[in-house]
Amino acid sequence: MSGTHQVHGDQQPSGTQRGAQSGAQRGTHQATYLGMPAFPQAADASTRNTQLRANLRHATHTIRAKRATAVAELDDWSRLRAAGAAIKDRTLRHLDQYLEQLESAVTAAGGQVHWAADADEANRIVTELVRATGEREVVKVKSMATQEIGLNGALATAGITAYETDLAELIVQLGDDLPSHILVPAIHRNRGEIRDIFTEKMSQWGRPAPEGLTDAPADLAEAARLHLREKFLNAKVGISGANFMVAETGTLVVVESEGNGRMCLTLPETLISVVGIEKVVPTFQDLEVFLQLLPRSSTAERMNPYTSTWTGTTDADGPRTFHLVLLDNGRTDTLADTVGRQALRCIRCSACLNVCPVYERAGGHAYGSAYPGPIGAILTPQLRGTQSELDASLPYASSLCGACYEVCPVAIDIPEILVHLRERVVEGGPASVRGTRTVIKPAKGHAAERAAMRAARWALDHPRLLRTGQRLASRTRRFHPRRLPGPGRAWSDTRELPKVPEESFRDWWQRTRGGSGTGSRPEGRKKTT
Amino acid sequence: MTSRDPGTQDPGTQGLDSRALVMARVRRALADVPRAETPGEVPVERTYHRVHGDRTAARTVDLLAENLADYRALVHRADAPSSLPALIARLLGDRGATSVVVPPGLPDSWLSAVPDAVRRVPDTAELTPHDLDAVSSVVTGCAVAIAETGTVVLDAAPDQGRRRITLVPDHHICVIRVTDQVVDSVPEALERLDPARPLTWISGPSATSDIELDRVEGVHGPRTLEVILAGPESAGRS
């Protein structure tokens, strides 16, 4: 090992030897979402990054149009969508039964099932399982669950190097970067940036990039193929997530495009899959709905290039040992919220990110978790709670335009949950935190808003006072500031204050009788005038 | 079990192992679900189509060919009697293949026209990933093919071999029997498949959309996928 790896792009001598120690060095330096600023601050910085905005705009607009075409091919899309939502609801309402059924089926098929209450426990289980094999290197299929728990960092601390094999995850890993999209974690990088990362960094992790690498996507894909080939062929341990787990049969499903998934799922001797407990579906037949909904929603394809399913272990074909780690990590807290529960239907297609005007401008990193975009804005504050400033700010990272709900293949009413979570942040109230029913305190930053709402309620309950106030406001309108003073300043930073009219509606009505001049007053208006 | 702050310890779950802890949390989270409710009582309406559109069998095979080609699979037809062996030999020849992996149950006639100079590599347990990486091509059958999506499904039956043999070599020739292996839709395919077997659904050669969400064919799986739609008489006598 000739020198350690630096985080921020320092040049390394090419041909650096790989080894367990270098892996640990690399890993412990890896980027993390911990300590990230609240969404408004993060977005304030990212929206000024014109390169990022151009990359995101290009990518999201490309996929948006393609998705619409792929969905339009199926005239029963809305029925598939309703069925997808219903199957997930059925599963969630009886999750205990389905998890038990899944566990017995996986065990009967030769797999071993482990349970992890939180991220630390899942990381510890996986680390121990890898250690038991005696291996110091693992190959990984792209997995949201392992991103969520920060598995690569935990493995690195234990001296185990995890190689990401999905092209976009590879770009992120080589660039000491964080994922910014569920489907395409390196969506914030354009082809030129990717070429530079490959040229500069591949040699530190294994086979260097070919001489004179161009920025043509086909050439970049070829460079990734060559770089990862030796890792696949030598791999003894593979780590994956899963898109679906079938309770009835114990079958796991991984949906992918590149073939890196197949490599990790079939060549190693040991396979460890870390999967959220909400990924279960009741029957093998239920896959007929999700295998139609998912590819068209995510990559806008009739079907993705490769889907692998496996049930336990198979003699002489694929891994001899299969471990399934079932992960809670806040999912049961989400399940306990009858409004927010529907977020657990999510099949991680990322259609909501691609249509979101806020995501398109702020980028994925601003959401401060593995789950960016609209789904992240409702999932992260439920999985992690709303205690931190960042997590409390996420339900506000939306204009509530509803485009996310419209494209969601399992009909998650994201705007409804956003408003629900805003209420929880401002008002506090009962919630489940790490399995315990607690009462959340109202967030500090919203004291002014609560005071304003209380004042408004009081004023609206006192019509005479309201009238006096309105008249006073009208008479003084020339002197009104354009921005609010004091705690209201932040609010008016990004908003126009409404203009106070010369005369209130009710005064106008009283004066003109609704403009008709007949003098007859509609019934029911008497007591308010 | 994770050590926690005593103040946030789940009530009544101290000392439980993680399985019991998670199950207890799930049950508590579902306090709103009536105890008597069964999963079947949560309605799931399967009013979606079983098949999209109404096609003749021949038209279904045409659609399969179109959709496979749309995702860059190379599609060939073997309709004439005994035409399949010659076609396979030609495809391997055009490719310049020097070796081919042979699943244990591949019909003998399929490779009968392939010159002896092309080394046959049997799919055995001793075959390492490195060995496979040195082989030019693989020829297999399939379990079922889906017209609407342009998908072939392998189930590791004897004419398809272990999953790895259709993954590591860079050239895959997959033969579909049009008389009994083509279905219209995903629901029809699932019905025919056995979940206990490892399944690989293949829709075109490997691809990625990871660079600017632009689709590029050919990453880790075989970069060339050739599909042969074989008529009933095409294989000749085994």
UniProtKB/TrEMBL annotation, chain A:
<feature type="region of interest" description="Disordered">
    <location>
        <begin position="470"/>
        <end position="529"/>
    </location>
</feature>
<dbReference type="InterPro" id="IPR017900">
    <property type="entry name" value="4Fe4S_Fe_S_CS"/>
</dbReference>
<dbReference type="GO" id="GO:0046872">
    <property type="term" value="F:metal ion binding"/>
</dbReference>
<feature type="compositionally biased region" description="Basic and acidic residues">
    <location>
        <begin position="492"/>
        <end position="510"/>
    </location>
</feature>
<dbReference type="InterPro" id="IPR004452">
    <property type="entry name" value="LutB/LldF"/>
</dbReference>
<dbReference type="Pfam" id="PF13183">
    <property type="entry name" value="Fer4_8"/>
</dbReference>
<keyword id="KW-0411">Iron-sulfur</keyword>
<keyword id="KW-0479">Metal-binding</keyword>
<dbReference type="InterPro" id="IPR017896">
    <property type="entry name" value="4Fe4S_Fe-S-bd"/>
</dbReference>
<keyword id="KW-0004">4Fe-4S</keyword>
<keyword id="KW-0249">Electron transport</keyword>
<dbReference type="InterPro" id="IPR024569">
    <property type="entry name" value="LutB_C"/>
</dbReference>
<feature type="compositionally biased region" description="Basic residues">
    <location>
        <begin position="474"/>
        <end position="483"/>
    </location>
</feature>
<dbReference type="GO" id="GO:0051539">
    <property type="term" value="F:4 iron, 4 sulfur cluster binding"/>
</dbReference>
<feature type="domain" description="Lactate utilization protein B C-terminal">
    <location>
        <begin position="421"/>
        <end position="511"/>
    </location>
</feature>
<dbReference type="GO" id="GO:0006089">
    <property type="term" value="P:lactate metabolic process"/>
</dbReference>
<keyword id="KW-0408">Iron</keyword>
<dbReference type="Pfam" id="PF11870">
    <property type="entry name" value="LutB_C"/>
</dbReference>
<dbReference type="InterPro" id="IPR024185">
    <property type="entry name" value="FTHF_cligase-like_sf"/>
</dbReference>
<dbReference type="InterPro" id="IPR009051">
    <property type="entry name" value="Helical_ferredxn"/>
</dbReference>
<feature type="region of interest" description="Disordered">
    <location>
        <begin position="1"/>
        <end position="28"/>
    </location>
</feature>
<dbReference type="InterPro" id="IPR003741">
    <property type="entry name" value="LUD_dom"/>
</dbReference>
From TrEMBL, chain B:
<dbReference type="Pfam" id="PF02589">
    <property type="entry name" value="LUD_dom"/>
</dbReference>
<dbReference type="InterPro" id="IPR024185">
    <property type="entry name" value="FTHF_cligase-like_sf"/>
</dbReference>
<protein>
    <submittedName>
        <fullName>L-lactate dehydrogenase complex protein LldG</fullName>
    </submittedName>
</protein>
<dbReference type="InterPro" id="IPR003741">
    <property type="entry name" value="LUD_dom"/>
</dbReference>
<feature type="domain" description="LUD">
    <location>
        <begin position="130"/>
        <end position="229"/>
    </location>
</feature>
<dbReference type="InterPro" id="IPR037171">
    <property type="entry name" value="NagB/RpiA_transferase-like"/>
</dbReference>
